[in-house]
Structure formats: C-alpha cells, structure tokens
Amino acid sequence: MPQAEIDLILVDGCPAGLDCRLLGGERLVVYPLFAAMDRQPLSRLRPRPLPKAFVVDANLGALARLLRLCGLDSLYRRDFDDDEIVRLARGQRRFILTRDKGILHYSAVDHGYWVRNTQPQRQLSEVIGRLRLQSLLHPFSRCIRCNGLIQPVARDLVAGRVPAGAWREHRHFFRCDGCGQIYWRGSHYRRMAAHLAALGLQTP
Ligand SMILES: [Zn+2]
Q: How many angstroms separate the alpha carbon of residue 42 from the centre of ligand 1?
C-alpha cells in the first residue's frame, strides 16, 4: 500500500509510525486512508456484517441530527465522554463516528470511522458514501431530537398540540415514540427533503 494512503498503523493495538521496527510476532494492522476501521479477527473467513447503528462523538451533533433525519440509529449526547462512547459501541454493537482519532486507538473499539469533513452536510455525504449506507436510509423515520422512531398519529390526537395553522393545513401527522415530538410535512420538511434530494436521497 502506498505510504500516502496509510492512515493509521496499529502494532499490538497501539498507534505506530511508518518507521516502527518490528521484532516479529506483533499484531500489525494497517488502515488505509478513507477506510472505515474494522478490527474483526483476521482469521474470520466470513466476517459479521458491520454495525448498522452509530454512536456519535460530542463534536458531531449536527451530523448526528442529519443521520437521524436519514433514519439511521445514531446515539449522541453533548456530554458523552470517550469511555461512554466506547461502552455504548461495544455493548450495543455500534459504529463510532468521531473527529477525535484518539478514541479509535482504544483496544476495546471494534468499529470506528474518523470523519474528515468539518461541514455537517459534507460529513453526512462522506459517512453515507464511505460506509456504503445508501440501502439503509429511511428519511424522516426517526426523531432528530432523541433518535426515537416516528410513527403516524391520528390527526385528532394532535389537536391543540401543534400550531393552529399547521393543524388546518395538514392531514398527516407523525409522533416520536421516544419524546412525543409531533412532526408534519411543513416548510421544514420541504427544506430538508430538498437537501436530501441534493445528496441523491429520495424522501417519502
Ligand atoms: Zn423524539
């Protein structure tokens, strides 16, 4: 592999430079640039599929909301620390998305990806493309506030809980089964749908 394409070298689980000396017997893992990390045992001939859920580090709140908008199960809290992220990733088989390479060096981390872009919409395109998530996307199926699932709810049940104008203009409403947030396909929906369409994603 050309050196320029090497992003991370781990020797026995520890980051190492290109000039590290090997004595023999070490476990050497080389991650190419732009590859997602997958530390499954090399001997596994038919590896388990990669996790389809995420835990997103504290610096990537806007990305977490965009992933939820696309229907991807994405845990995020502003006060997540590294230990909690690693615990959630291991305990719930979640893929870590981070801007902090350090967390990917924990030996307990099996699956992680260091997000290159700094702009949230570009981050979304990057993550969907690099992790090949296109077939998993279900836009507007998940609450952007809490990551809960959104279900249709009878219009009568939201009377008085949404602005009068929205209640008059819309027939179909949706409710988050986590936090109870009510959604409808108003101007915010249209803006987000246009944004997703620009990324080549179809919306309901
Ligand atoms: Zn919610």
A: 39
